[in-house]
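Collaboration report, partner site 2.

Our partner group contributed sequences for two proteins of shared interest, and the home lab folded both. The records are reproduced in the order in which they were received, starting with the first partner submission.
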Amino acid sequence: MGELSRLPNIGKAAERSLENAGIFTPEELRALGSKKAFWRVKSVEPGACLNRLYALEGAVQDVRKSELSEEKKKELREFFNSM
């Protein structure tokens, strides 16, 4: 496993999806942000779900996805539903 899997919420499958989307380091993920990173993941993994978006945001913030605020989750749900 690489650098990405050291982040919260990022296991082997998520890391593989990110790498397939051209994101290889925590710095690249943080620079893109969860929404742009999710767009890229979704382009290579059409079945990516809302939980993956939450996981990416948690990784960007360096927290477990369960620790995201309800306000942030609402924002991400609205983004996901607009796709």
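Second partner submission, folded after the first:
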Amino acid sequence: MKRLLITTMCAVLCFTLLGQNDLNYDLSADGPYIIYDSTEVQNIQVDRSGNLSITRYASLPSKYTVHVASHIGNHQFDVPLHALKRQNWKTETRDKIFVISDPHGDVDCFISILRGGKVIDSAYRWIFGKNCLVVIGDVFDRCDDVLPIYWLIYKLEAEAEAAGGQVTFVLGNHEEMVLKNDLRYVRSKYTRLADSLHRSYASLWTENSELGRWLKTKNTIQVIGNNLFVHAGLSRDFFDKRFDIGMVNDTISAYLQKSSSERSASPTAKFLFGSNGPLWYRGMVLTNSKYKPVNNADVDNILQFYSVQRIFVGHTILDSPTGFYQNKVVGVNVENDENRESEKARAILIEGAKLRLVYDSGTSLDKF
């Protein structure tokens, strides 16, 4: 029988209440969600047996840490909460920049490639020194471990900063979909939990949640040295508007957790969240006319305007990380599970002017 555990915490433990999940949903491992209500803070989590626990605090203890586990329990780690801030949209280059995209809730693949690239160790700790990890969006949807991946990125962000390194997560289209309550790709395990709490799934990701607050600080476009990172791509229409990158990041964050109708009320937001905006545009890697593809001159103009030499994108699935337009555009997104099993490349390592393909085995090969 599934059980609901509610623990209330003040300065000390006050009481524990046990009871059956009143809607009798068959829940599976999920969380933790840290929710800040007007009078309390809640830690909401489902364990591997399907038991829902809600721990309530008048305020969080100092140096509060959450325990995170994958849905089958093979990955477990602790995450201290830390202060949130927006990363500068332009940062200095690093000796090494490790680039992956679109992990989509597949924590096994995510951890495997980070270990293969010697970004983390067997205890999920940052070991990449003063170097940089870039994840080009899309953690939500498709697989069962969305929360563990977000929490691991959150954790590594603080560890990298302490070591003089950098973790950059840029927003993808699946972030913008879920946060406006577009749940077409969300697995039922997540919506069942929300239903059992009598709330929408998107309400677990508002500014009243730790991870919702954290996502709102994330940029959509990031420049590191002479490399630009964006989830989908930059269209000719985008270039024609001569958008300032800081303005793009601020606008998308401001409308990230708003509805489609609220976004449509702003012409700028409507464009940025649309098919030719940086979260959805595929025409840097696909040539079908319906995608309004760019050409060589467009790419050169974009690179010159933003003072970069290369653009890295995810979003569109490729057989392997691939260069386009004389390698001025690099597509990174692949079928992670399939490529891992067939020992194909799944990441890019930037070392100065060199780009290398990286495999789960840890092998890196010159490609470009």
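Feedback sent to the partner group on the second submission included the following. The chain has eleven helices and 19 strands. Residues 146-162 form the longest helix (17 residues).
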